[in-house]
Structures are given as structure tokens and as C-alpha cells.
């Protein structure tokens, strides 16, 4: 049963009806059909039609020519946009990503035959009738990822589909069919043709998925990990220790999953920054992953005063502080009980923290100059740093009079 009641679908099927009313075939197709059947959230809806791009542009008043070479026009309707693509057959994929040419087709079955997996090769018309020539609904019921047609041919067309198979397994909790796995093993060298950004994008989706372990086991069993690791290592990763893989599966934080994944691949903390750059991760992620890895690896369960705990939370922020001790636990440097104790201390320190940012210090450089009668200079920064540390550690209340008193007692003769 296909539910068309969601506002996004209602609008999509309104376009389908307009196309049908103008004498064309039209269907909602692809991933939105799959997700709707699984009861998953749908954010994008694609439409396939027998109308040519020029006919689509004439029919709808607001369109954007986003992919005319491949038969695609974006139709804009109020809050929503829909990619409307003419039924097509595809030529060979010379760049392992795009077909060298496309030919418009007369039938939706020809269009569905070019798609990657059976669960993505279904179409629904305005009456809710499902066209499913490759048994995608059965594979949804069986929870199986299976290619449309010859899997080796599908992967030669676009090698990224091998990672997409792993990603769908992780996102949906499905198994990958044996024939599809065999084809991945046979065609895995094709990953070398792909842009690093595309590979990293799929890895991020895998590590953000509900069951990343399903995908990671496939990466190792199908030897895909060797091709991925070749992007950033000059050595092949060994099979991951079972406890390390289980630790990654139990983790829910995507930043920590990335670190645990790279560690499974044999990356060392000293290599983290370089590897993240070679994977073309965003700068923010590169900095954060490197810092978390470095701090988590050296964290120990030694004694730390309340003042030091407060300084740590102020320096890193609560979220990062909690990630550091969670990573230390994942690395085996803390027991579960020890990690929970640190988390409680960090949360308490954050709750007690009188300020979130140095700019919230109740005394500034101008006030210091008025109190002291001194000219501006580096001494101001040194005094403010000292006062800030005393406030953060809980030694002094963050109030102008208290800070002035502290400075008069300990700071007026500071160089």
C-alpha cells in the first residue's frame, strides 16, 4: 500500500496528474517510493515521464533547466521542487559516473531498468498503482539489496554503487544478496576511478546510519576496504578485531564513529590530520577529529581537582569534553564506570560555570586602565587571562568589584 497523504507526495502527484492530463505517462519513482513503502521519512520526490524536457517546460510555468543533457528539468511549485526526468535508456559510462549519452524511451520499464537496485526501481502513478518489473517489493519484504539486471554491469557503470549497497544495508538494516557481493569483489578496483569526495560522502552516510556494522563487515568481506584505504594509507588494513568493531557499532556519535573507523583501518592518531585532509573532509571535521583523537588517546583516570575539571570544560566546552572521555572509554583507557563518573563531573562543572566565553568576564581592559592609570599594553591580556582563570576555577566570583579587589591584591605590580 502506498500512502499519498503527506503534503510532499500530494504535491508530487498533482504534477503527475497534470502530466497525465496533458497526455503523457508520469510516475513518482526511485528512493521516495522505497522509503514510503518502508514508512521512512521522505524528503525528496523524483518524477519520471514520457514528456520531453521541452514539453515539461511548456507545461509548467516555473522550471529550472538543471540537467537537460540527461533529460531532467526541475519544476518549482510553491514550497517544493521536483526533478522531472524523461524516460530514458543510457549509453556506456565512460567516466564511471555519467552515461556517455542517453536516449529517450517510451516506457517506464525501460527507465527503471537503468537503476541500481531493485528496491529503487519502482514507480507509482496517480492512482497509486505500483509498477515493479524487478520485484523490488519482494526484496523490501525479504530485506535484501539486489542489483537490477547484471550486478557487474551496474557497478561498471558507476563504481559508487558498491558503496551505496553497503550504505543501504546500514541505513535499512538489510542484507546484500550473495550475487551482489560477488560482483562487488570482482569490480572493486573500479573505486579508483571515483573522486575522493564521492567516496567520503558515502562513508559519512554509512557512519551516520543506524547499523554501520552491516556496511563495515561488507567493506572488509568484499575487500572494498583495501581500495578505500589506498586513498590514504600505503598499507592494507587487517581484519578488524571483533571488540573494536563492536565498539564502533555501539557508538552513536558520528565524530567518534569516524575516529573508530579510521582506527579500524590502521590509521594512527599522528596520521589523523593528514588522512582527514586526503579524504577531503571539511576543515572543521579535520580539526575536531584530530583534537578528539589526540586528547582521547592520552586521557587517563588520574586525579584531577575540581578547578582542573572546570578549566577542562571551559577550554573544550561540555560537548567536546564528554566526547573525549567517551573516546577514552572506547579506546579502553577508562572503564564504563570511570567514564560515567567523568561525565557527571563535567556536567556538574558546566552547570556551575559562571561564564561561557571570555568576553563575559565582568572586568575588561578599559576598566583595568582606569583602575591602574596605566597605558595600554601586553600587561592587560596577561591580567585578564589570570582573572579569567580564577573565575573559571571558582576562586573568584565574576563581579567587577571582586575582580578589582583580586587584581589590587595580586596584580597591580604585574609587568
UniProtKB/TrEMBL annotation:
GO molecular function: metal ion binding; nucleotide binding; nucleotidyltransferase activity; tRNA binding
UniProt keyword list: Magnesium, Metal-binding, Nucleotide-binding, Nucleotidyltransferase, RNA-binding, Transferase, tRNA processing
Residues covered by the CCA-adding enzyme C-terminal domain: 257-403
BP terms from Gene Ontology: tRNA processing
Required cofactor(s): Mg(2+)
Pfam families from the UniProt entry: PolyA_pol, PolyA_pol_RNAbd, tRNA_NucTran2_2
Domain Poly A polymerase head residue range list: 26-146
Keyword Transferase assigned: yes
InterPro entries: Bact_CCA-adding_enz_type3_sf, CCA-adding_enz_C, NT_sf, PolA_pol_head_dom, PolyA_RNA-bd
Domain called tRNA nucleotidyltransferase/poly(A) polymerase RNA and SrmB- binding: residue spans: 173-227
NCBIfam families: PRK13299.1
Family in the record: Belongs to the tRNA nucleotidyltransferase/poly(A) polymerase family.
Full protein name: CCA tRNA nucleotidyltransferase
Amino acid at each position: 500500500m502506498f500512502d499519498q497523504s503527506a503534503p510532499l507526495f500530494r504535491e508530487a502527484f498533482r504534477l503527475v496528474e497534470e502530466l497525465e492530463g496533458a497526455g503523457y505517462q508520469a510516475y513518482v519513482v526511485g528512493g521516495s517510493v522505497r522509503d514510503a513503502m518502508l514508512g521512512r521519512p521522505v524528503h525528496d520526490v523524483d518524477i519520471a515521464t514520457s514528456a520531453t524536457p521541452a514539453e515539461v517546460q511548456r507545461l509548467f510555468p516555473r522550471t529550472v533547466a538543471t540537467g537537460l543533457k540527461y533529460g531532467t528539468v526541475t519544476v518549482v511549485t510553491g514550497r517544493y521542487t521536483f526533478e522531472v526526468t524523461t524516460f530514458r535508456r543510457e549509453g556506456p559510462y565512460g567516466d564511471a559516473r555519467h552515461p556517455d549519452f542517453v536516449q529517450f524511451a517510451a516506457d517506464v520499464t525501460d527507465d527503471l531498468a537503468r537503476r541500481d537496485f531493485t528496491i529503487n526501481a519502482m514507480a507509482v502513478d496517480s492512482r497509486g498503482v505500483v509498477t515493479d518489473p524487478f520485484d523490488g517489493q519482494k526484496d523490501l519484504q525479504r530485506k535484501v539489496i539486489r542489483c537490477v539486471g547484471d550486478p557487474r554491469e551496474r557497478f561498471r557503470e558507476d563504481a559508487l554503487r558498491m558503496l551505496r549497497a553497503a550504505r543501504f544495508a546500514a541505513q535499512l538494516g538489510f542484507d546484500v544478496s550473495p550475487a551482489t557481493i560477488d560482483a562487488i569483489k570482482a569490480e572493486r578496483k573500479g573505486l579508483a576511478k571515483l573522486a575522493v569526495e564521492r567516496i567520503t560522502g558515502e562513508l559519512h552516510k554509512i557512519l551516520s546510519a543506524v547499523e554501520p556494522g552491516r556496511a563495515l563487515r561488507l567493506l572488509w568481506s568484499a575487500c572494498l576496504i583495501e581500495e578505500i584505504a589506498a586513498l590514504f594509507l600505503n598499507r592494507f588494513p587487517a581484519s578488524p578485531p571483533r571488540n573494536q568493531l563492536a565498539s564502533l557499532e555501539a557508538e552513536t556519535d558520528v565524530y567518534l564513529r569516524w575516529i573508530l573507523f579510521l582506527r579500524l583501518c590502521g590509521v594512527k592518531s599522528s596520521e589523523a590530520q593528514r588522512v582527514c585532509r586526503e579524504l577531503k573532509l571539511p576543515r572543521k571535521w579535520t580539526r575536531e577529529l584530530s583534537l578528539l583523537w589526540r586528547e582521547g588517546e592520552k586521557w587517563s583516570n588520574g586525579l584531577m581537582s575540581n578547578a582542573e575539571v572546570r578549566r577542562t570544560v571551559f577550554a573544550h566546552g561540555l560537548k567536546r569534553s564528554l566526547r573525549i572521555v567517551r573516546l577514552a572509554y572506547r579506546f579502553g583507557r577508562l572503564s564504563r564506570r570511570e567514564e560515567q563518573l567523568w561525565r557527571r563531573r563535567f556536567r556538574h562543572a558546566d552547570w556551575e560555570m559562571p561564564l561561557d566565553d571570555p568576553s563575559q568576564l565582568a572586568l575588561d581592559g578599559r576598566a583595568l586602565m582606569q583602575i591602574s592609570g596605566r597605558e595600554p599594553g601586553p600587561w592587560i591580556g596577561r591580567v585578564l587571562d589570570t582573572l579569567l582563570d580564577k573565575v573559571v576555577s571558582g576562586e573568584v566570583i565574576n563581579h567587577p568589584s571582586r575582580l578589582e579587589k583580586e587584581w589590587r591584591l595580586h596584580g597591580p605590580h604585574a609587568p
